Each structure stands twice: as structure tokens, then as C-alpha cells.
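Can't attach files on this board, so I'm pasting raw text. These are the components:
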Amino acid sequence: MKILIVHAHPEAQSFTAALKDKAIEVLKAQGHEIALSDLYEMNWNPVASADDFLDRENEDYLVYALEQRKAVKNKTIAPDIQAELDKLLWADLVIFSFPIYWFSVPAILKGWFDRVLVSGICYGGKRFYDRGGLVGKKALVMCTLGGREHMFGEGAIHGPLEDMLRPLLRGTLRYVGFDVLAPFVAWHVPYVSDEIRQSYLDECEKIFTNIGEVEFLKFPSMSDFDEQLYPQK
Amino acid sequence: MKILIVHAHPEAQSFTAALKDKAIEVLKAQGHEIALSDLYEMNWNPVASADDFLDRENEDYLVYALEQRKAVKNKTIAPDIQAELDKLLWADLVIFSFPIYWFSVPAILKGWFDRVLVSGICYGGKRFYDRGGLVGKKALVMCTLGGREHMFGEGAIHGPLEDMLRPLLRGTLRYVGFDVLAPFVAWHVPYVSDEIRQSYLDECEKIFTNIGEVEFLKFPSMSDFDEQLYPQK
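---
Top answer:
C-alpha cells for the assembled complex are below.
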């Protein structure tokens, strides 16, 4: 498989980075091709703006998604976005590696979604969810967080982690058509012992050795909704 | 009241900006004091990094939240963060004005949360939710989006918008202790008629004229959980 890893952590020696390195090691050993976007190392610009378009459809008023549609057609999107888009379209599987900040991705990664998941290619009109532009590709979220596992789930203080990650798993990754694999989560990372960290690395190795066996999350299908996107009677 | 408006839209003439301007006009007319953080205009840096600390607790290994705790105590946090933090602590009500990008906030605003909601002041240890550091303040989300209203709600294709906004409303704003008001949402904005836009401006005027009457969202209370944050028996 062709695998893109999008990694976002401000500390190169972090445990999040160690998990990413372990994933690369295991996947390479199996003969997969790997591309890495290390957003902090690349000094990735996360801010969507008019500067993202080398030539504007409308110079006087910016509608970001409309400019994206023109720019991807005419190849006038900013080179840093085009480079990421090329990697994204090349990949069969995209792994997102990051620490949870505010029950979500760090801003630098949010801005990768904002700028790279372009209208006209990744989605557009009624091309979303199981009709999204990236149908056939897989995505996997690999994240670390400070909270303990018992603080998440039904009845727990924060509720299920997947509910907190809904705009990412469903609203972003599934929206553009990815088959979304069950996330890999390392809990309580800043506070755990080396033994527990090693057990996370072992779990990471196991998951990436058997990546074909990770279950897919389930989402609604467009075929359950009519042309106006109301539920089918 | 002292009111901070945090606004994030790449187009100064946008309808999102018009709603923000309407809110300011109405609130000023009632005698409220207003501060504005227009993140695009300020060229706000959304990327949390080691540069956010003028003096490091640990120069060799960055744990972002730990550095925050030291830096807010010693007043060694980066000046752009300190300025926003001062406005945040001054405000009784904070309004977040933005277009929905990927069922969430634009990256530039995500990075305001990542950098400004500092550990040690806004939260820390078991000081979160109804024991968060900003208890007593109110927050209101005012957002625009491309989707139609019937695409959100129970049984709708995207489910309830508040479920998509959970990491923001609950995981961020309520986490630090805000009383979170019911969001103000303008649907289908890029595609609607001037009449419908006017009706949104009218609705905005009404809401901000009667800001004391907007209902609060309901969230779990820390008192329902024990010292280890397990549900109380």
C-alpha cells in the first residue's frame, strides 16, 4: 500500500512522535511505501486565506470553497497545498498522528484539513460520505491524550471519545469518503510509566502489522437520503 | 457587561463579518463595553509551539501544558497570548464568530483555543466543567455554514449540529467553565437570497438585544463524579 502519515506535534522527541516512528518502522518492514508530512517540521501554514490561490475567480470577494474549485481545475492552488494534495491522492491509507488538543486536532493539523481537502476533488455538491471524492481510501487516527480511559465512554465524565471526535471522524474523514478505521488511542500519556508507554508501542506494532484487520467505523449512507438529502421515506 | 468578540473569517466583507458588526452595533447601543479580536486582521498565529514561552521550565523537552502553567505564573508567556488572555479574563461574555469549516472552527480560531486557554488559569487538575477556571463567564457561538438546516437534527444526514460542535461547546467552552449559550446559526449562507440574509441580521439583532434571555446549554456536573472522576454510585 501507499501510506501517507500526517503528523503534528510541537516536540520532535514526544511519545506521539515515537508512535509515529514505530508505525513507519513496522509498515516499511512490510514493504509499504511511506510518505510523511511532519507539519511542525515543514512549518506548515494552517491559515486558509486568499493567498492560497495564485489566480482568483473573484478578486473582490473571497468565497474559499469556490476559489478552491477553480484553482484545482486550473492548477493555480498554492504550491504547499498542491504538494499535500498530490500526496493525499497518491495514498491508499492516510494516518493522522497527533496529540488531542481541546478534544480535537492541534490547529496546525486543522489547517491541513481546511486547506488540503479541496472542494471539487475531495467533495462537492452531493459528493460526500459514501459518495465522497476520496472513496476507496482508508484513514486512521492515531492520537495521544492526557485524560484517563475511564473518563471516556457512556456515562463517563466526557462521554465517548468517538463522540468528541465526531467532526473529525465523520464530519471530515468520512465526509470526503474515507473508510475510517477505529482510532488508536494512547491514554494519560504525560503521566504514565515507561512500562505503559512500551505497552502502547507494542499495541501500535500489532495494529500496523495487521492493518488489514482493523475494523471500520460505521456511518450513514447517502442512499438512505433522497435528492434533497431528506431521509428516504 | 464587558464583551469580547473573537472573530475569524478570511473575507472582511463576508456575511459572517456583517453578523459580527450587527452584534457590535446592538451591544454598543445598550452600553456594553466591547473588545474585538479579529484574528485574520491581527494575523494571529495559531500554532502552539516552544516559541510561546519566553523562558522554559524544561528547555530540552516541550510539554506544552506544563510550560503554560509556569509561564502564566511568571508572566513569561508570549505577548500575543498574554494580550488575548487579558481580554478573556476581562470579559463577562465571549462571542465566537466564524464560518464552520469541517464541522468545526477555522484553524486560526482553533489555535486561539490551543494557545490562549492556558492550563493553570482556565483549567488544571480537577478544575474543569462547572469547576473550570472561567466559571461565571458566558460564551456564545455565532456561526455560518453552507449546509441547509434540514441536513442537521435527529435522523438527518449529518445528525444534530450540536453533536458536531460537541468538542467546541462542551470539550472546550464548558470545559473551562463558561456558561454556554445556545448557538446562533445562519444556514446555507453562500446560497441564500438577500431577504434571507436580512432575516438572519434581524434575528441577530433580536438575540443581542435580549442577550440575557438566551438559554444555556446543559452539561454534566463535576459533583456527579467522585474524586477519581468515576460516576458517583
